[in-house]
Amino acid sequence: MSISKRDAFAACCRYLGVTRLLSALPTKPILLVLNYHRIGNREETPFDSEVFSATAEELDEHVRFLKRRLHVATLDEAIEIVEKRKRPRGAAALLTFDDGYLDNYEAAFPVLAAHGVQGVFFLPTAFVGTDRLSWWDMIAYLVKHTRRRTIRLGIPPFPEFDLAALGAAQATSRITAIYKAEARESSEPFIGMLEEACGLPRPGGSVRCFLNWEEAAALVRGGMAIGSHSHNHSILSRLSDEEQLADLATSKRILEERLGVPVHALSYPVGSRNCFSSATREAAIQAQYRVAFSFYGGLNRFGAIDPYDIRRLHVFPAVARFRLRVALAAVGGNDWF
Length: 337
Ligand SMILES: [Zn+2]
Fold this sequence. Notes:
Layout: H1 3-16, H2 18-22, E1 30-36, E2 38-39, E3 52-54, H3 56-69, E4 71-72, H4 75-82, E5 92-98, H5 102-115, E6 119-123, H6 135-145, E7 150-152, E8 160-162, H7 163-166, H8 168-182, H9 188-198, H10 213-221, E9 225-228, H11 241-259, E10 265-267, H12 278-286, E11 291-293, E12 300-301, E13 313-314, H13 319-332
Parallel strand pairs: 1-5, 1-13, 2-3, 4-5, 5-6, 6-9, 10-11
Antiparallel strand pairs: 1-12, 7-8
């Protein structure tokens, strides 16, 4: 079923009272971890629209629904559940935010604070307080702003993307997929090649996209939790064992020194199954993380949670779909929708 059909189906269920009915049933003892990225209006960005998970208004609706239906857990409570020290009475939800965009501080934090719930913000430490751009934002920027009708990548098998036929969003998503499959430790060669293919340079560093250390400290003072999203946001499974350990240990040390709090949690960059390996888990354990979160879907049933592969759900912004999906997951213990 396509995304729009699912949204329409969810809207129907809401209209017919199905979602309300589901919400009255007892829930399973699961940990449902939601993963957001950017908060704001996807239409307005010159960069990657696909990393926008919700507007602030949609996030507000999401939290309102979660508070009515489930227990919104703190990171410490979630770790107790993972380590089997506390059985949740029913479904518990954990709100997580990856990448440390400035809008996490400016738009998500006020919503969470107003509701008295905690969000967990996973920061790639090399990005904090800098004006650097992520590789996915650079790819999206170049594709959105090129004047060429066709982008021909300068790497075998030299694929071509017809922008008139595909549209910028589809072309960006295909080129990003190639990057994820091809890239090594540095994004530089790929971005340089794409600049040539698009006939324009990457944007200068005049816009600060990521939050800084003062803002990260304000999140902590405001009751939010901080975790590591690695140091460089490299795809960890592509690094050597030593590089992985160095990256994860560096990130934890910097966060703890800068923020003065212990850091127990890690979220793997990108987070799909092939982006972390058994060596990554070993590095996470050696660097003394207690838990690590993946990002390829799924729920976490009490008693059967892998502490170094805690499953997270991608958030679709449409509120009706969000409610139906959460209600079904809480009652059935499965991610059916
Ligand atoms: Zn990320």
